[in-house]
Amino acid sequence: MNFAKEYSRKLVSADEAVKCVKSGDHVLYGEFVMNSQLLDAALARRKEELFDVKVRTTTCPFAPQVVLSDPEQEHFIYTDVHFSAASRRLHDKELCYYAPLTYHEMPSWYTSVGIPVDVAMLMVGPMDKNGFFNIGVANSITPYIARKAKIVIAEVNKSVPRCLGGNLETLHISQIDYLVEGDNRPLIQLPEIKPTEVDQKVAEIIVNEIPDGGCLQLGIGAMPNAIGAMIASSDLKDLGVHTEMLVDSYVDMYQAGRITGKRKQLDKEKMVYTFAMGTNKLYDFLDDNPVCASFPVDYTNNPYVIAQNDNVMAINNAIEIDLFGQVCSESSGVRQITGTGGQLDFIFGAYKSKGGKGFICLSSTINGPDGNLVSRIVPTLPPGAAVTVPRSITSYVITEYGMVNLKGKSTYERAEALISIAHPHFRDELIKKAAEMKIWRRSNRIV
After folding, report:
1. Which CATH number does 11-181 carry?
2. Which residues are identified as catalytic?
3. Which of 74, 82, 349, 389 lies at a CB distance of 3.0 to 4.6 Å from 303, suitable for a disulfide?
4. To which H or E segment does residue 120 belong?
């Protein structure tokens, strides 16, 4: 195959490429910062010609034009399977829907369950001499979408870093139907979130639990950033990485000499991840870097793959937790905040890992709408709250007041443990509620 000739044959404008979309089609956008704003805008321009087009994405960091141009949802119906802040705002306006998932199972939606993909609209890096396009910082389910789609459209963007595998980190020109050359706009960068004093306290507790040679998984947010900064300035040795999301703090830890991966049992000396979101510091670090290995999510997030490394330290945030140990990390009542993501995958996988620990981290309180403190350790989750980690799976829980392990504990022991790390202002009321729910013994020690 003459790749240059094939490239020229498939090269069209964005408006020409999206003409393949028909009313009723299922259109899959890219994932995370690999969503194509160019192709989205072109599809939105066809609004009046199309009806009931179902658009789906994974964590689109911007509000798509197909949504903004069609507030009545007569033409496009939009679903995000792991919300961004932009998707959350659209959901509040009833313009975005959520699809519950267990992240490591998501490829099976397309290989086994039969979720249709009529058109995939992806972003890729430039073609190499062998006819391959790198899929950049979002491996995740992108390879499976591309293989399932009847038609694949790819925006070629020279700003996409060349992320090495791993596995399935490229698409061949033979897998792509239309190529569109964009304006090479830089990848979207995440704003830095400054850790609070509470974040720092929680981070201190966690860092003291991490052994030399521990294998790290960090979630997103200020608290993981604080943990990464502390690790970078610590004397920890030979840490490994097997994570869902790669963020800037991994760069800091690697450059500080904390990460070597030498003690990993699986993918030794590789920083394994399925997607990356951060700043240009991270994207530049990933470009052509053989220490980083991009894999699809059914590998990175498979609990039985995770467990093959020893001392997995899985660190994730939560919105609230009830006295039974049910963790809600994705909604506030019925309001969707984010998605399950890989939290359940990694909490379960870390528990199966020799020496591993799965941490659920949260500040003990949050400011309510009226400005008053609200406890994030609650008697029961509110109606509509999604259980991200069931009580049977929850193990370590940390607030600024300490750490408890719920594994093996009865309901009254769980209540006692969780109340011991709640804000002191709320402990008496939590004890009262626990007694009403018959999960408090009179012989319990005073917390």
Report:
1. 3.40.1080.10
2. 244
3. 349
4. strand 119-124
